[in-house]
Amino acid sequence: MSEWKNKTALITGASYGIGESFAQRLASSGTNLILTARSRERLEELASRLRNQYSVQVTVIGADLAATTGAREIFEETERQNLPVDLLINNAGFGALGEFASLSLPRQLEMIQVNVSALVELTHLYLQPMKARRAGAILNVASTASFQAIPYFAVYAATKAFVLSFSEALAEECDPFGIRVLALCPGSTSTNFQEVAGSQRINAPRFRQTAEQVVDVGLAALAQGRSHVISGVANKVQTQLERAIPRKLVTKMAGKIFKPQPN
Ligand SMILES: NC(=O)c1ccc[n+]([C@@H]2O[C@H](COP(=O)([O-])OP(=O)(O)OC[C@H]3O[C@@H](n4cnc5c(N)ncnc54)[C@H](OP(=O)(O)O)[C@@H]3O)[C@@H](O)[C@H]2O)c1
User: Fold this and answer.
1) Structural domains of the chain, count
2) Which residue in 24, 30, 222, 262 has its CB near the most CB atoms, within 10 A?
């Protein structure tokens, strides 16, 4: 991880969970940070803690990636402050459990905006200067949900399938420029995600990984130049097994697990 010492990483969704853990891990190895999310106050507290603990430079940019202007605002602010981004971590994201037709349409479109459109826009914006420098890396947080359709989590799983496919394609395109792209695919992880998605019931906390475990897997895979990595042995085995089973059956099984139970 020392390759990021004295470099700058921009982390979206840095206020909680996996993003906050990325901030902690990278700061502890001397990486300067740009932290962004909507919860500005929380980011300021994290920034001040990391500055004191690790003597790194930390910049906070409050932005809502559900707004179509959010990604550009972040980019323009880093340009204005003359902050180069060596490592872009597109981590912000959320899910919503429920039957597609019954869930709020604006909420699901917001999910596509945050999980997909903002990620694509930030990647496009920061790739230009990385290409000019012929250096840099992009780590996109996908999910084990990237590998199969999930009834009652339909839009979320589709956004994460996009992130995986997009990242793997981009890894190949960017290789000649010395830029690495990785899709990090965590399984269930102990963060606010389940509460936000309304999916607490699906995985008992004892089967969840910690955000720190996920971050370590992601940073190690990035260092190895991989284009995707699944975090956790059980998640890897599950993903492999699913490949041997007809897709329709995998979808049916996922639907049984994710179908919301009547209260
Ligand atoms: N936890 C899991 O089980 C799991 C499994 C696989 C993949 N993932 C993925 O991991 C990533 C991080 O999630 P997490 O588990 O750490 O969940 P989390 O604890 O809920 O954190 C989500 C982060 O995304 C930010 N965010 C959400 N909506 C946003 C918006 N409109 N604009 C800007 N930032 C926004 C949140 O910040 P604010 O609320 O302050 O804006 C927060 O920092 C997501 O992409 C998620 O899909 C999670």
Assistant:
1) 1
2) 222
